[in-house]
Amino acid sequence: MAQREGLTLLGRPNAYNVRKVLWLLAELELDVTLEPWGRGHRPTDDPEFLALNPLGTVPVLLDGAAVLRESHVILRYLAARQGAAGLLPAEPLARARVEQWMDWVAYDLTQPMRAAYLGGELGLEPWTNPWFVAHGRLEYGRRMGQLDAALAAAGPYLAGAGFTLADIPAGFVVHRWYSMRHVAPLPLPALAAYYDRLSERPAYRRHIRNGLP
Question: 202 and 100 share a domain?
Answer without folding.
Answer: yes
